[in-house]
Write a structure and sequence with these properties.
mainly alpha, 8 helices
Length: 246
Amino acid sequence: MLANLVWASFVMLLQEGGEGGGGMSWNLVDMWHSMGWPARSVVALLFIMSAWSVGIMIDRALMYSAARKQSRVFVQQVAGALKDNKLDEAISIAERNKKSHIAKVVATGLSEFQAASAQVSNEEVIEAAKRGLERSVAIVHAEMKRGLSGLATIGSTAPFVGLFGTVMGIINAFKGISASKVTGLSAVAGGIAEALVTTALGLFVAVPAVWTFNYFTNRVEAFDVEMDNSSMELINYFITRRGGKK
């Protein structure tokens, strides 16, 4: 019943707008002034959620772009240092590329390997390096995912926040009917239209957040694959290096 009433009101508003009648202003400023405080609070909350999600999007986009660019440079530089068995130089290169996800993992693995090489057996050195790489991958993964849960929360809750504002607006519209003793769709059309603004805002906030969350999640999964591959290659390098010393 409520959905049918809202749809009928919307159709009638379109008809009135095309005929130049109805007397209702579609100006957003006028709608804001005619809203009740519950609806205004919902709109303000949605703007805060929107600003928060945009901030997360910008921060993650910059971080992922920098990680991708530095990783390309780092892989080329560190390959030559490892080929010449220059671990100190490889660690130094990794520390200069602090924004690279691969560099962070490789730096930890090289440091663990170098620290354990002079103290324990070959098998223990490799195990120590593996544990260090696993810890590093987990830490970098958490850094890469930071903020994405906020996008997911905004994407899933913003439509319901907007719907709450719509419900409150419709309640106020029917309260206006009760107070003015005027019946008919024309009496509630303006109030319903203003209430629907919050639903539109909720969708406007939620859709980009959901899209961006899915996109960034795929980026993080790709980074995880790259870190896992780098860890396996580094372990193979350690095994080969220790085997050559036997």
